[in-house]
Amino acid sequence: MPREITYREALREGLDEELAYDDNVCIIGEEVAEYNGAYKVTEGLWKKWGDKRLIDAPISEAGFIGMGIGASMLGIRPVMELMFYSFAYVAFDQMMNNAATCRYMSGGLTNCPIVVRGPANGGTNVGATHSHTPENIFANMPGLKVVSPSDAHDVKGLIKSSIRDNDPVYFMESTVLYGMTGEVPSNDELEDGELIIPLGKAKVKKEGTDISLIAHGRAVVTSLQAAEILAEKYDINAEVLDLRSIRPLDEAAIMESVRKTHRAIYVEENKPFCGVGAQISSMIMEQAFDDLDAPVLRITSADAPAFYSPPIEKLQLPNPEEIVERALTIC
Amino acid sequence: MAAKTKSKPTAEYADAPINASLTDEDKIELLRKMVRIRRFEQTSLKHYQGDKIGGFLHLYIGQESVAVGSISLLGDNDHVITAYRDHGHALSVGMNMDECMAELFGKATGCSKGKGGSMHYFAPDKNYWGGHGIVGGQTPLGAGLAFALKYKGLKGCCLCYLGDGAINQGAFHEALNLASLWDLPVIYIIENNGYSMGTSQARSSAYPEGGLAQRAEGYNMAWDKLEGVSIYEIRAGVQKAVERAHEESKPTILEIMTYRHKGHSVADANAEKYRTKEEIQRYMQEHDPIEFWKTTLIDEGVITEDDYKAINKEAGAEANSAAEFAEKSPFPDESEIFDDIYWEVDNNTEAGRTGRHFFHK
After folding, report:
1. Is A61 a catalytic residue?
2. A215 with A175, same domain?
3. Chain B: nearest CA to A319, how far in angstroms?
4. What is the mean pLDDT of residues A93-110?
């Protein structure tokens, strides 16, 4: 019987294993220690690892994220939690200028092995300020890496490789996914003794032949639901490709899928303007134009700030029915 | 603590143990370092005006004693980070004129291979972490360097410099709170030259009677205000903060009164409009740290006027030689554009070879 745990538990296991792996790994953020984490991701870790490794920060994102960046230059590997990734905007100068460009401006003399992680999603009725999805914004900046895992298995393997990475990795989760379960092998079931997933490797979540639904984060789950409907009701065999990491990007996997299916939709909870899908569809157009039988489509969140009212906000986010409807226009 | 606006006699500071232990050679070396910074910058100004240097050039002329005096106190586990007026700190930690001048010229032999320019000098091998362009942006990094020292159990500190114009940035206040809350061995040195670009201190900052550093009291942090013209006073005052950091792992804010002879940058067209010529002249004549230290050493019988001339000449020759080196050096190759962005790519690791990292073309 394969082991099933939640996304949250898998993430915590990954953090716990990296705390054991390297003494320089510490976790810093608001409520991560004594409170056990605002979303309970770090539950139990303070009790196990103590004050030195799990550090409760004041509400002061520019200060503590910047502090983590400075510490990383001297060899500490801080894993910073943003209670919401929306709060990255408070620390924007630190995250965009200091973490991303110090290596370049020093001619390669410095590097910042820092992870900044937290949930980056809408759909929880918390209003526009707490519902931002900034993966496109940070992926726009050379020097940064952006990771967005969609299930329990991947979140564990990706957080571990992100912490071991010697560049700044911005790791974007979803509060909606935290409670979802998935198969995650325990370490004694694994040949290497641990679950490590390299950044820059996409994963085919469902093989198909008729259309590629390419996505990251929670939109992968939505795309899988849409693929089921397409198969059951319309006899369309959709492939679902999960990017897992946005930068570095598994371009080869995208093109391979498109060359097989000849049709593609990029699905994401990002906004449309210069979203991740804009980049991907442009690349498909340039590199696989002759393989396409239809224009590449993009399905995103509505191009508006997040609506508070629960039934309306739901309509702002991509849903399986919308994906099916758009797919039918090109299949 | 009463505000001090004029330079004080140096005797009381000269007797401080950290100064009493200075040998004549040490004192001459402090002079030589200040003179080298000045000649380096005078030479860079000449070449900036000759169109050899692009962008901004923020000159430190008039403030040399602050970097030289404070950095002269540091040991193996002490670190330095500063803002964009960074040439003086770079030369003080031991970076050489050739690499610094070549960086200004945008050459491949520059300390950052021509990628950083005037505002972004780095030398991690000398515990020097930049050179940062955004006002106040380096102040959380300074707390982070101190955090790392404490985390590793090393007895050290971080000197984090900022200008008086940076003290109103939110990041600085957040850094102060963390430094005090977590007992980080960081020393914030406000180099108060009186102007945040073209706006005077009175027009930009609200502060208590004791001055800008007294804001430390709001964070339950130690502070002091020093007259920057005197190397003795700087060393005596900064040493107390270094000991506080080393022995108690406690932060300090120091305000060091100084003056920049030039504009905010060379591009500052109003350098003689927001300040009167008389004011600039007065500071150049009465508060020049190099003149002040030179006179001190002559009075002490450590050097003669001729010795000073020799030091000045030697530094001028070194700066000219650096400019020749910079001039002769090649520009970076275009292929350098995509180096030094990702550590993993530069080191050709498996992570660096996995997935696409760059998206041009």
Report:
1. yes
2. no
3. 29
4. 98
